[in-house]
Amino acid sequence: MVRAVSNAQLLQSNLELVVSRDPDLMQIFYTTLFERYPSVQPLFGRNSRDEQAKMLTEAVAMLVSKVDDPQFVETTMLAVGRKHVDYGVEDHMYAWVGECLVATLAQVSGEDWNDALEDGWTATLEAISAIAIQGAAAERAERATQPATS
Ligand code: HEM
Q1: Any atom of ligand 1 within 6 Å of the Cβ of 73
Q2: What are the sequence ranges of the domains in the chain?
Q3: DSSP for residue 4
Q4: Distance from chain centroid for Cα 42
Q5: Does residue 15 line the site of ligand 1, with CB under 6 A?
Q6: Residue 135: φ, ψ to 5°
Q7: What is the Cα gyration radius of the chain?
Q8: Most buried of 55, 60, 99, 128 (most Cβ within 10 A)?
Q9: Residue bearing the CA closest to ligand 1, atom 1
């Protein structure tokens, strides 16, 4: 549950630290993701990698700033999950993305990384991913009951 994340400030200050240390940190994320899980690479390409990296940083920053507002997080992540169905994203890929985001944050944090950050980020990403996966299920269920339009 998102409620489990009581360490919003910890995550927010870590995010500020890593973004100030390396504004292009999401490039590390994509490199890590595509190295560890090459099968996801073909899903990307609608936007340039720079644009995509910027959107992802902004989305994560926004979610972390609102992590104490479960209603906001739920509404946002349900919509993210629904939209990602169109990108060909499958449920098991959320764990991959979470793992690679944590690895990126750990790498850029360097000696400032610790167990509380590892646990806090992992729990937060698992919680928001679970909501996205619910959104994706709702989207697929709706599509299955609607007549095809094309
Ligand atoms: C923590 C969960 C995630 C968040 C917050 C997130 C956020 C975003 C955002 C903000 C965008 C920009 C466009 C839009 O709003 O739809 C986007 C696009 C996209 N995301 Fe995610 N995402 C998440 C998980 C994933 C996962 C698990 C995958 C699977 C590999 C994925 C693949 C994509 C793809 C393929 C696009 C389209 C980008 C393009 O083609 O340039 N995302 N995501």
Answers
A1: no
A2: 2-142
A3: G
A4: 18
A5: no
A6: -60, -40
A7: 16
A8: 128
A9: 129
- Cβ 67 vs Cβ 125: under 8 Å: no
pLDDT tens digits for 43-89? Answer: 998 778 888 888 888 899 899 888 889 999 999 999 999 999 999 99
Q: Does ligand 1 lie within 6 Å of residue 83's CB atom?
A: yes
| Structure-block tokens of residue 80 | 């993210």
- Report in angstroms the alpha-carbon separations of 107 from 17, 33, 73, 93, 139: 12, 14, 26, 21, 35
Rounded mean pLDDT, 28-56: 90
| pLDDT recorded at residue 149 | 63
45-62 exposure pattern, b = at least 16 Cβ within 10 A, e = fewer: eeeeeeeebeebbeebee
Second-level CATH architecture of 2-142? Orthogonal Bundle (1.10)
CA torsion sign for 99, 105, 109, 115 is: negative
> CB-based contacts of 104: which residues, under 8 Å, 6+ apart?
25, 26, 28, 29, 32
CA distances from 141 to 34, 94, 113 (A): 30, 19, 41
